[in-house]
Write a structure and sequence with these properties.
Blueprint: E1 8-9, H1 12-24, H2 26-37, E2 40-45, E3 48-53, H3 56-65, E4 70-71, H4 77-83, H5 92-102, H6 108-127, E5 134-136, H7 137-154, H8 163-178, H9 190-214, H10 220-230, H11 239-270, H12 272-283, H13 294-300, H14 303-315, E6 322-326, E7 331-333, E8 336-338, E9 343-346, H15 348-352, H16 394-411, E10 412-416, E11 423-426, E12 430-433, E13 437-442
Helix pairs in contact: 1-2, 6-7, 6-16, 7-11, 8-9, 11-14, 11-16
């Protein structure tokens, strides 16, 4: 790998305009910085400086090869206000203590049971749709993904016993995350955020208490509670740590999956040839493959559906930006020297729209990802990050996305009513704005 071009600074006279652009038009501004200054650009804001590294190999250097030289950045300080010290936001020391305790629920050996449990839930939800009905497709998918995660990881029946709690989580999470936007120096609308956060905390605490009272079970929440009971030195014995892990898994576990599915249906509505090939593949699935071997089907088959999902996540990555901060010693990344304390921004949006890596980067072309193996996105696509802090639920999220696409696509199609009005809102995650509205067309 050749070194990056020399690190270039944003001129002081342009700093105010660039900062304003990052707050209001972050995707366009990131592209402007890369196109104007190259793959390594530094922006000084007061006493703090941060560097945008745009080359795809830079992400691997920072997150994988030289990960010990970096710590979690100030960029995540606002996210920590919402999710505390859960897996996503915790410092490396806490992350190393917690992750092994949760790993078992996300291993390949557990996936078949998870898929078997989610399959009837998805089929039941899709079965409620009526031909010609106009629905809020975004809300439908967010409710479904939250219900699936709630059942699989926490033994919570959001569709029947905890409907109010499900809707409260979705409502208040939407408010809270709207107040948390990258490149904002502080929380927008602090009063609204605090009220939403308080309601989220109360709902999560009620769900944890339900898990305690329900006793032993085969779900992750019961296992986390038991670990804390059996070992007072276990981090999960601390009520706050348990709370932080639950709220992190609930929010991160459903929101990014829902947005990936929303964007996938959005692309399918716009690309007629892709939509036809997608339905043709699904229509060829035998009924028997939807029963005992559904997990094997998702892992080894539906190759075109996988390509559609990967291409959608390339063009509209739900996690569109990541960050780290240089630790105590200077570090060189592809020839660029970064001083201690420097914040580093890494953008999946930029990487995924890189014309050298992906020719015709703005074109939706699933066949650029021919024959991806299993559930692993083909390199250099990194929708779940990489290294020891790679998303713990990557395999589960992908299986759930594929299951929803397959089971929904067999029964219906969605004709979007507002597809041309939808823009990419780069906030806490990259989501469609406004929500997608669609007319159901049963097949």
């Amino acid at each position: 790998m050749e070194p990056l071009a020399p690190l270039r600074d944003v001129p002081l006279a342009d700093t105010h305009q660039v900062c304003a652009g990052l707050r209001t038009r972050p995707l366009e501004t990131l592209c402007y910085l890369r196109d104007t200054f190259g793959d390594a650009v530094r922006l000084a804001v007061g006493a703090q400086s941060w560097v945008l590294l745009s080359h795809p190999e830079a992400m691997k250097e920072v997150l994988l090869r030289q990960r010990e030289s970096f710590i979690k950045p100030p960029l995540l300080a606002l996210a920590r206000e919402l999710m505390g010290d859960g897996l996503v936001t915790a410092e490396d020391r806490v992350h190393r203590d917690i992750r092994p305790l949760l790993n078992q629920a996300f291993q390949r050996t557990a996936l078949s049971a998870h898929v078997a449990r989610m399959q009837p839930m998805i089929s039941e939800a899709v079965g409620t749709l009526r031909d010609g009905e106009e629905i809020d497709l975004s809300l439908f998918l967010r409710r479904l993904t939250l219900s699936v995660i709630g059942a699989i990881l926490f033994g919570i029946d959001f569709e029947r016993a905890f409907v109010d709690e499900r809707d409260a989580l979705l409502h208040h999470a939407a408010i809270a995350t709207m107040c948390l936007r990258p490149f904002q120096p502080q929380i927008e609308d602090l009063s609204a955020f605090r009220q939403a956060k308080q309601c989220l905390d109360q709902t999560v605490d009620a769900l944890i208490e339900h898990g305690r009272s329900a006793g032993c079970g085969d779900n992750l929440l019961a296992q986390m509670v038991m670990l804390g009971v059996e070992d007072s030195a276990c981090p999960l014995a601390r009520p706050k740590q348990l709370h932080d892990e639950v709220i992190t898994l609930l929010l991160a576990g459903h929101e990014t999956t829902a947005h990936a599915l929303e964007w996938t249906w959005w692309w399918l509505s716009r690309e007629a040839d892709v939509r036809t090939a997608f339905h043709q593949e699904i229509d060829q699935i035998r009924a028997g493959d939807l029963e005992g071997a559904f997990c094997d089907l998702l892992e080894q088959g539906v190759t075109y559906t996988k390509r559609v999902l990967w291409e959608s996540m390339r063009l509209r990555p739900p996690v569109w930006i990541m960050g780290r901060q240089v630790g105590l010693k200077p570090v060189s990344v592809l020839g660029v020297t970064l001083e201690p304390g420097t914040a580093v921004a890494l953008s999946q949006w930029l990487n995924n729209h890189d014309g050298q890596t992906y020719p015709g980067p703005d074109r939706f072309d699933p066949n650029r990802f021919r024959d991806p193996q299993g559930f692993t996105p083909p390199p250099p696509l990194l929708p779940f990050g990489t290294g020891p802090r790679r998303c713990i639920g990557d395999r589960l999220s992908t299986a759930e996305s594929l299951a929803i696409l397959v089971l929904t696509g067999r029964l219906c199609a969605f004709d979007l009513l507002n597809g041309d009005e939808v823009a990419a809102d780069a906030g806490f995650t990259l989501k469609p704005l406004p929500n997608l509205y669609a007319r159901v067309r049963l097949r």
